[in-house]
Amino acid sequence: MRDAAVARHRRRDRAPCARQQQQDPGSPHAPPVRAVSGERWPAASGAACSPAAALSLRDRFPASIVMPSANRHAGHYRPDIDGLRAIAILSVLAFHAFPAALPGGFVGVDVFFVISGFLITGLLLDDLAVGRFSLVDFYARRIRRIFPALIVVLAACLGYGWFALRAEVYALLGEHTAWGAGFASNLLQWSEVGYFNPAGIRKPLLHLWSLGIEEQYYLVWPLLLWLAWRLPRGPQIAIGLVLATSLVLCLYLSRGNAVAAFYSPYSRFWELAAGAMLAIRAHRMAGTVAPRAIPLANAASLAGLTLIVAATVYIRQNPPYPDWRALLPVASSALLVASGPGGFVNRALLSRKWMVGIGLVSYPLYLWHWPIFVFQNFAHDGDVSWPQRLAGLALAFVLAIATFFFIEKPIRFGMPARRSAPVLFAAMLAIGLCGAAIAHFDGFPAHFRGPAAPYGAYRFDYHADARSPQCWLPPGSRADAYAPECIDPDNGQHLPLVLLWGDSHAGRLYPGLRKIADGRFRIAQFTRSSCAPNFWTFHPRRKVAVCAEGNIHVMRVVQELHPDVVVLFAYWSGWKPRAMDRILLPTVHALRQNGARRVIVVGPAPAWRWPLPNILFRMAREQDRAPPMRMSQSMETDRARIDADMRAAIERQGEAEYVSAMDAFCDARGCLTRTGQDASTLTTWDYGHLTTHGAEYLARRLPLPPATAPAAATPDAAPATMR
């Protein structure tokens, strides 16, 4: 109770001065500034406006993570906070442009979260201290700070995508626009994680996940802080509970559900709460800084910079992030913020004009850079050179600066708040509805004209005729999750049995086998995404057990069925001669010893650096003519080497037959892009998974049993031991 009384007394003492400071940040009537004991304070009359009483958190820490300070008046602004923003955004840019150079640069987002929690909580505390807290005013300020640049970027992406993206990709962009306008991108990205969902490098609005988490936090925290404000030590208790609960959840999810740990707002709130805790402490200690604290501030700022550099250099995406390692960028950011503008690093580096300048445009720079990188990849089929990446960075800076000066500042300072917020809200709603319409109408495929039209409208259902997920299992399925219908019944025809075993690429070969199987052979399909057909799997740690158990189950099926032919097919990515000798050849031998009469190994199929439909659409649009039937550009270069090594290994062992998919699809002119003149006959619907046309084309080139082929006798060899 004593603490509550003291707090009320302090609030009454601060109120007159605080009321003087509630003027329009851009008003010419803002209080002048005078120096007191090495600090700069707003001048005020009366004892109630002494330096200690006059210093509110709004005056010392006035900015938001997403925008520069609303108050440029001297004494009301910490330039080092904008400098810290610069470190955060430069880390993110470096990671996205040159990930090998700064593999941990993605932790810049964690830095942004801490800054946001610190500054926004400070503004809320100031409003609560003077009795002017209003959720309506708070969200109006958020709208004016966040919406202008985001509306421009979303509109620009939709405009560019209309001309440059296939309808299927444009529909996805529309969906992401709708969710981004609703600040729920993180939830959409969370739901989209899956084996065949588009890679992040093909999602122009992927980066809005962080903005979603931030705004979801501010749907909860202002109200919670308002409720806690009325209780003794309420804000400290509230933020402590939020931080502890969210951190524990993050650590728990990171052990078994890394995707949820990354995208869930509840497992990320602790990072914003860490900044909020700093703000609460700063608010309680306002005006109590002593000279002896300067050495401590210097040490804290140096430690913070050291830790943040270490985080960007040494933290990796694997194992999945965030986990306990997220404590490093959060702690480093907290140290830099807590050291104050007088800390050595803060005043010597972060307060430099060029650092502050980058920090001021960090929000529009963050919004612009990722769509530019993604559209560069679409324009160059995923092969963007380092000079082109530098050019993309330069363009992002130009657009960010233009957005800051010609969009954000005029709207924030040139329009009354009561009018600008509703207009901005309506504009964002319109953008979101536009994106939803684009998604609903499948990207408007009819709007394409000329030779590019059939490629722009191309769509493919990769589940079609592939018996997914009954016989083509998703990652993580049980070893014995295959349905009974995965083995064709005999029906008294005594047809030979062909067992197809492999990963998702084998799953897409099944429709081709089915096309040619009638009256010739039966099919047993055992395919599982991300699991190559072998008994010595070398996948990442958590996939090893699942793949190994599933493959052992296939061996039991072979022992039981004694198939006439076992067909092995996979992506075969990264296979080298040593792996073939130690993994592939023993697998072939084990199959023969356990009942397989013949084994056919199908080598790697052609693969493209970018989805083949996107490549052909771009070529047809730019050249205004149909793309070639065969081509060698934009192809992965390791396929021929793997094909040659695998052929040599299989022929040397002599226990299996080898079929080169490269020979089937490619010749001196290049590799087939489609099996007929029509765009519907593409061989591949993504980088390398076969379409039904491509699968049939390859299946017809396999030495499979004819309709009249007699079934061979089962070898009497004893089953081999799998070691």
What does this structure look like?
The chain is mainly alpha-helical and 723 residues long. The N and C termini lie far apart (71 Å). The chain is built from 27 helices and eleven strands. It has three domains: 1-55, no CATH class; 56-446, no CATH class; 472-699, SGNH hydrolase (Rossmann fold), CATH 3.40.50.1110. Keywords: Acyltransferase, Membrane, Transferase, Transmembrane, Transmembrane helix. Residues 1-36 are annotated as: Disordered. GO terms for molecular function: acyltransferase activity, transferring groups other than amino-acyl groups.
Can you give me a brief rundown of this structure?
It is built from 27 helices and 11 strands. With 723 residues, the protein is mostly helical. The relative contact order is 0.09.
Strand content: 5-15%
What ranges have pLDDT less than 50 throughout 5 or more consecutive residues? 1-75, 538-542, 708-723
Tell me the count of domains: 3
The dominant shape is: elongated
Q: Any idea what the radius of gyration is? A: 31 Å
N/C terminus separation: 71 Å
Strand order, largest beta sheet: 3-5-4-6-7-9
Main sheet summary: 6 strands, parallel
How many beta-strand segments? 11
State the helical fraction. 55-70%
- The structural class is mainly alpha
Q: Count of DSSP helices?
A: 27
Q: What is the averaged pLDDT score?
A: 86
GO molecular function: acyltransferase activity, transferring groups other than amino-acyl groups
Protein name: Acyltransferase
Domain Acyltransferase: 80-403
Region (Disordered): 1-36
